[in-house]
Specification:
Number of strands: 0
CATH topology: Growth Hormone, Chain: A
Distance between the termini: 35 Å
Strand content: under 5%
Number of domains: 1
CATH superfamily: MFS general substrate transporter like domains
Number of helices: 19
CATH class: Mainly Alpha
Helix content: over 70%
Radius of gyration: 20 Å
């Protein structure tokens, strides 16, 4: 693993981090506008959760192909294709979405595009940085997902307020287009380890079962991947419903002190506050051990989600403090899981391992918003405090269980 032929590892990392943020422009647009679109299209909470989760259907169903493809072809090309697909998804949503079915379609297309950018971008980074710096750059890359999410939320709220929800989606298309062009033009080409003709798009390339069996027989890889699935279930379940939760909390203060800012901007602020948690968490894990840190962080996130639900009726300042704490704990083990998987995966299967890891994680991300919405409906609807407690408990249960498993294995 040498340095990039054009840029130093550090400059290459900076370019990929910038592109990563741009690629996320459409990621949280629906989440930012969920209360408005739920009312406009007369969606149930379960249906709104399905629309949110369909992004991850597109992501999870194709990420293995895109990431494994980087084992054989130039990852910059994969990244550029992803930018075009993500832009098409956002643009289509803005121009043509008119209800549940069409929203589902364009969310799937958006997820397919970002699937060709997120993990292939991480592969481009990990191939160009080696040694101790690799874990730290991976920590920055995974934590910058939060910055991209925050900017997506803020931009959606601002553009929607000025020009309507359709233009929020259309404007978001510019981000992945710019990201694809930046990576393709700004990073030098490099022959992959298993260079050769790309396999056709088929079930065998989407689901390389033989390679997956080999990877899942590797207990560290399997453990990090399963932990990532539980992490993503809680992370994306909570983020998809954050603006809606803030709207519920604000509604409890009619005539009293409520949130003084736009709710999408508050959600963006919370996501930015959570960014350092992943980076700091990785540094702590390097000192005390990955397993110990993962156990602590997952226990904290699962428990604090239920605390947040119970705090909905508190003063807005207290709600915001608990929400920031919760979001930081949710992110605290993210980089540790990813860096651990990269370190444990065989180099010749690193792209495939990243694909499997991302597939499992974003399968959890797909389920999270649906579980949250279904729990809200099953517990009496979004107007009841107990329903929000049930929803946060539902998405946090996997992290609580993972924390216990990691603790038991650590003792063993």
């Amino acid at each position: 693993m040498g340095s990039d032929p054009i840029f130093s590892p550090r400059r290459t990392a900076v370019l990929l981090l910038a592109a990563h943020i741009l690629s996320m422009a459409g990621f949280s647009t629906f989440a930012a506008l969920l209360p408005e679109l739920r009312a406009l299209w007369h969606l149930s909470n379960s249906e709104a959760g399905v629309v949110s989760g369909m992004f991850f259907v597109g992501y999870a169903s194709t990420v293995s192909y895109w990431t494994a493809l980087t084992d054989r072809v130039d990852g910059r090309r994969v990244y550029l294709i992803g930018g075009l697909l993500a832009a098409a998804g956002s643009t289509g949503f803005g121009f043509m979405a008119q209800g549940f079915a069409s929203a589902v379609l364009f969310q799937i297309l958006l997820g397919t595009g970002i699937a060709a950018m997120y993990m292939p971008g991480l592969r481009l980074l990990s191939d160009r940085v080696s040694g101790p710096a690799q874990s730290r750059y991976i920590a920055f890359y995974t934590s910058f997902f939060g910055i991209g999410t925050a900017l997506s939320l803020a931009a959606a709220g601002a553009v929607s307020a000025l020009a309507g929800w359709q233009w929020a989606f259309i404007a978001a298309a510019a981000g992945p287009l710019a990201a694809g062009a930046l990576v393709f033009a700004g990073i030098g080409a490099r022959a992959p380890a298993a260079a050769g003709a790309a396999a056709p798009f088929s079930l065998a390339t989407l689901f390389p079962l033989a390679a997956w069996r080999r990877l899942l027989a590797n207990r560290p890889v399997a453990g990090f991947a399963l932990g990532y699935a539980m992490h993503c279930l809680e992370l994306f379940g909570s983020r998809s419903w954050m603006v809606a939760f803030l709207a519920f909390s604000a509604g409890l203060h009619a005539g009293g002190a409520s949130f003084p800012w736009n709710l999408a901007v508050i959600a963006a602020f919370v996501n930015v506050c959570a960014v350092p948690a992943s980076i700091v968490g990785n540094e702590i894990a390097l000192r005390i051990g990955r397993r110990r840190w993962i156990s602590f962080a997952m226990l904290g996130s699962g428990a604090s989600g239920m605390l947040l639900a119970g705090a909905a009726g508190w003063h807005w300042g207290a709600v915001l403090v608990v929400l920031v704490l919760y979001s930081m704990l949710v992110m605290a083990e993210s980089a540790t899981l990813t860096a651990g998987m990269v370190a444990a995966a065989p180099e010749e299967l690193r792209g495939t391992a990243m694909g499997l890891y991302s597939l499992m994680g974003f399968a959890g991300g797909m389920i999270g918003p649906m579980v949250f919405g279904a729990a809200l409906d099953a517990a009496g609807g979004a107007a009841r405090s107990s329903a929000w407690l049930a929803a946060y408990a539902a998405i946090g249960a996997g992290c609580l269980a993972s924390s216990f498993v990691a603790w038991r294995r650590g003792r063993g």
